[in-house]
Amino acid sequence: MATLTISPEEEKRVKALGFLSNKGTDNFSGRIITINGKISAQQMQCISEAANLYGNGVVTLTTRLTIEVQGIPFDKIEDFRTYLSKFGLVTGGTGSKVRPVVACKGTTCQYGLLDAFAISEEIHERFYVGYNTVKLPHKFKIAVGGCPNNCVKPDLNDIGIIGQMTPVFEEDCCNGCKKCSVETACPVGAAKVVDGILEIDEEACNNCGRCIGKCRFDAIEEGVPGFKIYIGGRWGKRIAIGKALNKVFTSKEEALDVIEKAILLFREQGKTGERFSTTIERLGFENAESQLLANDLLERKQEILDAKLHLVGGATC
Ligand code: SF4
Ligand code: SF4
Ligand code: SF4
């Protein structure tokens, strides 16, 4: 068996840079941030070259849309990072802080209700980059889903945003047809003709917008775009399904502010070592929700950031 020569302090230092020890060796996997799972052909080529030059030629994909190059010797880590920087690529994505954002392909997907690539890039800049030095009780994962099909499971992240299109129903146009094309178009059975008129069950409707334009009498011609936000999801040693805030946000700025407030709330009120779902459980969902809808956390942002908290966080990977 190989003799390991890297000290625990050095291992910890490079882990914070996104280099994870390859077990039983002195080599590391370098975790490259893709922002939202979208990289250029040039960047892809650069990663392949770096894998051949500094690693063992193997490239792996992680579940959170980062790319890892395996088998990098400790003394090649800096050269590897410099090589990647030629095409604007950086390593990272570890520790008790905001983690790389995960997004679906909502920008190009036929069901997409938001520009998932653009919004996730904005979230990446504002919270992954902007909060990179901010210590949290544990890791904090953000996901962006283009529609209620939930392909990237936003409700299993600490916070998840889902694109919405709330249908606008013009009751006066509805003739209560025997065979209602809106009812047929609704994938979750939320739209039904009852007593000669269409009814949309607001509890059951997930605002997928699939019924818009389906009525031949123009009863549903428009929708209101928006964002649904889930908080407190997690998937791992323990599982929690996130709960949706009782509001569909129609302003992107407001939705992104909720993410910032959630990070500040977690930093201020989370206990070191606990995930956001536990913080919410402890505080109570209604309490957490009212703080996320109010402005106090943002007004106290600097005070919360300046506090000496979570000097050693709970994340182990
Ligand atoms: S969540 Fe919706 S928009 Fe995103 S990939 Fe799935 S179906 Fe497409
Ligand atoms: S919503 Fe349109 S298709 Fe459905 S019952 Fe009313 S008029 Fe007919
Ligand atoms: S928005 Fe989607 S879930 Fe809601 S009524 Fe229309 S088709 Fe059904």
From TrEMBL:
<dbReference type="Pfam" id="PF00037">
    <property type="entry name" value="Fer4"/>
</dbReference>
<keyword id="KW-0408">Iron</keyword>
<dbReference type="Pfam" id="PF03460">
    <property type="entry name" value="NIR_SIR_ferr"/>
</dbReference>
<dbReference type="InterPro" id="IPR017896">
    <property type="entry name" value="4Fe4S_Fe-S-bd"/>
</dbReference>
<feature type="domain" description="4Fe-4S ferredoxin-type">
    <location>
        <begin position="198"/>
        <end position="225"/>
    </location>
</feature>
<dbReference type="GO" id="GO:0050311">
    <property type="term" value="F:sulfite reductase (ferredoxin) activity"/>
</dbReference>
<dbReference type="GO" id="GO:0000103">
    <property type="term" value="P:sulfate assimilation"/>
</dbReference>
<dbReference type="InterPro" id="IPR005117">
    <property type="entry name" value="NiRdtase/SiRdtase_haem-b_fer"/>
</dbReference>
<dbReference type="GO" id="GO:0046872">
    <property type="term" value="F:metal ion binding"/>
</dbReference>
<dbReference type="GO" id="GO:0051539">
    <property type="term" value="F:4 iron, 4 sulfur cluster binding"/>
</dbReference>
<dbReference type="GO" id="GO:0016002">
    <property type="term" value="F:sulfite reductase activity"/>
</dbReference>
<dbReference type="GO" id="GO:0009337">
    <property type="term" value="C:sulfite reductase complex (NADPH)"/>
</dbReference>
<keyword id="KW-0560">Oxidoreductase</keyword>
<dbReference type="GO" id="GO:0020037">
    <property type="term" value="F:heme binding"/>
</dbReference>
<feature type="domain" description="4Fe-4S ferredoxin-type">
    <location>
        <begin position="165"/>
        <end position="196"/>
    </location>
</feature>
<dbReference type="InterPro" id="IPR045169">
    <property type="entry name" value="NO2/SO3_Rdtase_4Fe4S_prot"/>
</dbReference>
<protein>
    <submittedName>
        <fullName>Anaerobic sulfite reductase subunit C</fullName>
        <ecNumber>1.8.1.-</ecNumber>
    </submittedName>
</protein>
<dbReference type="InterPro" id="IPR006067">
    <property type="entry name" value="NO2/SO3_Rdtase_4Fe4S_dom"/>
</dbReference>
<dbReference type="InterPro" id="IPR036136">
    <property type="entry name" value="Nit/Sulf_reduc_fer-like_dom_sf"/>
</dbReference>
<keyword id="KW-0479">Metal-binding</keyword>
<dbReference type="Pfam" id="PF01077">
    <property type="entry name" value="NIR_SIR"/>
</dbReference>
<keyword id="KW-0004">4Fe-4S</keyword>
<dbReference type="InterPro" id="IPR045854">
    <property type="entry name" value="NO2/SO3_Rdtase_4Fe4S_sf"/>
</dbReference>
<keyword id="KW-0411">Iron-sulfur</keyword>
